[in-house]
What we know:
By secondary structure, this protein is of the alpha/beta class. It has helices at 9-20, 24-27, 29-44, 79-92, 128-138, 156-173, 181-187, and strands spanning 51-55, 71-76, 97-100, 113-119, 139-150, 191-197, 204-210.
Amino acid sequence: MPTPTRPTATDLTRQRYDRLAAYYDRSEALMERLMFAAWRQRLWARVRGPRVLEVGVGTGKNMPYYPPGMQVTAVDLSPAMLAQARRRAAELGIAVDLREMDAEHLDFPSASFDTAVATFVFCSVPEPIRGLAEMRRVVRPGGQVLLLEHIRAPNPILGRLMDVLNPLVVRNIGANINRRTLENIRAAGLKLVSVERLSAFGIFILVEATP
């Protein structure tokens, strides 16, 4: 009898977000209303097209902010999250090419897009540097990578607390709260253009980078 194959980190991430998909929007509704929606709008106002890739589309929370005239391709690892995104696109009347795809292995030729966008994604990608390097690869020279992320707090005490709590948070909601995403961006070969800290403790950031 063959030995069962252990699920990979990617498999576990997919399964976790498949389970969360049905109530994901409800779980974040308050934060979306208070902060996230305005930040999404600010990010998408900076997008240059026309060819745009959204990595980790989730349930499609960014769709209301897609600028007109863009050719948007949006990918996600979770089939259940994509099902929610398809429903949202239909309700909004938005034309978007939705595909099931792993952020660490983007099935596009190099330099396919003018801009690549991700919002609150690289807290959950198992190998974030690999995923960021893939975003760099598929964006044309001189193009944009735009990220809205939460990261490990720069304050040493708060940062250490986030390290301690991280395993519990990952088990429950799948997101790492102590990712050093600015360091990961540089390690992936992206060049930082700007970093905007959106909260008092420096946990939420809006980043523009270029390949």
